[in-house]
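Page 37, top half.
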Amino acid sequence: MCSPSLAGALTALLLASTPAASPPAPASSASDVSAKSRPRVTEQLPLPPDFTIPNGIAHAVDGTLYVGSVADGRVLRRAPGGAWTELFPGSEQVFSATSLRLDAPRNLLWGTSPDAMGLLRPKGTMGGRRHARIFALDARTGALRKLVHLPEGALGNDLTVAPDGGLYVTDSARASVLYLRPGGEHLETWVTDPRFKAQGTGMSAVGPAGIALAADGRTLAVNTYGPGRLFLIHPGASSDAPPRVTEVELPRRLENPDGMRFAPDGRLLLVEGSIQSGDGRLIRVEVLGKTQGPRTLEVLASELESPVNLTVSDEGMVWVTEARLRDRLLKGTSVPLPETFWVASVPLSR
C-alpha cells in the first residue's frame, strides 16, 4: 500500500479494503470554527447516471463547469443552466481525471491521469499502464492536444496552471512538486521536502495531494493527504535560488486534505476527505497574511461525502466534487458504487 503504485488520495481510497490510520481530528477550538450541518450547500447538480466517481473539476469565466471521472477518464461540460454534455469520452491514453484546471488564455483543459481503477484488478496490477500522465484537452472541442508522462516512480495527483502556461503537479509518491515549463515535453522536480513525506500504510502513505497557486502567480500552497499538513512554497530570492518551503501553523492536523483553490479574496479553500470521521468538509483559512500562531479553520460546509476537489468563481461560488467512496474504504471494494453522483455548490460568505 505504500509503494509508488499509490495514485494519490483517490487511488488510496480505491485500493483500501480496511480503514487505515489517519491523523485524528480534535474537537473544535477557538481557532477551529465549525458550521452547522452543511449550512451553505444550496444546490446539488446531479451527474448523468452512467458517470461515476467525479474528481477533477474546473470552470470557465462564464460559469461553464468541467468535471472528470476517475473511473474512465470521461470529462463532462455544463453551461450555466444547461445539461451535462460529454466533452471527452476517455481513452486508452487518458483513463482517469483526478484533477482538471483550465488554462483559458491557451484554451487548454489540463488534467492528471493516474491508473487508479487499474489497482482494483486482481493483486492490484496496473494493466500495462505503468506511467501516470498529465493531459491537455481543447476546451472547446475536447480534442486531446497534449500528453506528458510523469517520471518513473512519480504519481501526479493534482495540478495548477501558472499565468505563463507552466504547470505545477503534486507527486504523491515521491514527496515532491513537479514542474512543466510552458510548451515543455518533460516534467522536472521543482521542489522536494522531507516534511512532504508520508509514512505508514493505506491513507497514511499518501503525501502531497492538493495544490493551489496564489494570485501573485508565484506562491503555492500544498497539502499532504495522509499526514494532514499544509505548506506554502515561496519562490527563491533570485532566479537561480531554490524555492523556500514553510509550514502553515494550524490548530489541528487536517483530516485527509485534498483539492485546494485560492478564493477571490486571497483566502485558501480546501476540502477534507475525512475518511476516519466521515464528516467531509469545505474549509477556508487565511494563509498569506502575517498573523502569528495557528490559523483559524473556518468550516463552510460539512457532511460532504468524500469531497476530493473544488473550483471557485470570481463571484464567490464554490463547486465541490464528492466521490462517495467512504463505504468502499471501510468495507472493501466489494461494496457497490452509489447509484448517483453530483457536484455540490457552496456560496462564499464575507
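Page 37, bottom half:
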Amino acid sequence: MGVLRRNLTAYGFLCAALACFAVFAWYPMVREFVLSFQRTNLVDPPTWVGLDNFRAVFQDPAFGTAWLNTVQFTVLALVCGYAVPFVTALVLNELRHARGYLRFVVYLPVMLPPIVAVLLFRWFYDPGPGLFNQLLDLVHLPPLAWLDSSSTALISLVLVSTWMNMGSATLIYLAALQNIPPELYEAAELDGAGILARIRHVTIPQTRLILLLMLMLQIVATMQVFIEPYMLTGGGPENSTVTVAYLMYQFAFTYGDGYGQAGALGMMLMLALLIFAAFQLRLTRDDRGESA
C-alpha cells in the first residue's frame, strides 16, 4: 500500500497519457477499421458493404499513381531530409562559437505553423517574382516552373518538407554526437585518422541506433505527407504529386460519400507502415544485441 501511495502521482500522469492516446490515437484507428467496411455519409446510419470499399480503392485510376508518388517522395526525402540534418549536426558539433544561435536558426522552421511555412515557399516558387527564380536569374540561368511542371513538382515538395522538419532531427543528432566519448576521437587522431575516417569509424558506429530509429520515423512521417501537396499543388500537375494521404482526402471530401473508401485506403497505408516498423524494430533489436 505504501508503494502505491508513493507512486500515486506517477500513476496519475500515466493514466492521463493513456487517456490521451486512447482518445486521439487508438480510437481513431479502431473507428477507421470499422469505417473501411461501411458505406456512410456520417449523417445517415451506415450500411455494411464488406470488401467493396477496398475493391473501389484498387480500381481507382489514381491508386497506383498515389503509391508510386508516395514512395518516390519518401526516397527523395531520405536523400535530403535524412542526410542533411545529420551533416548539419556534425557541423554544429564542431563549432566553438555561436553554437546556441545557430541551433535556434536551425530549429526555427519547426516552430512555425506548417501552413505559414508552406505559404512562404509558395512565394519562393512563384514563377514570376518568386525568390528562387530571381536567384536563378542572378546567375543567368533560365527560370523553372517549380510547381507547374511534373518533372520538378515532387522534388519541390521535398525541399519544403526538409526545411520544415530538419530542425528536430538535427537537435536529436546533435545530442547523440555530444554523448560520444571524446577519447574515441583522440585515439582515432593518434592513429592518423582524418575527419572522414573519424566519421566513418567513430561517429556513425556510436550513433547507429539513433540513425536507425530516425530512419524509421522519417519513413513513417514522409509516407503520410499531405500538407505540402494539398496546399501547394492540389495533386497536380497531371497527378504527379498525388500521395496516398492526399488521395484519402479526395475520397472523403471530394468524391462524395467516400468515407469508407478513405478508411480502406488508410488501413492499407497503416498496414504497410506497421510491416515496415516491425521489420525496422527487428533490425534495431538485432543491432542492439550485437553491440551488447
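Margin note: The first strand starts at residue 38 and ends at 39.
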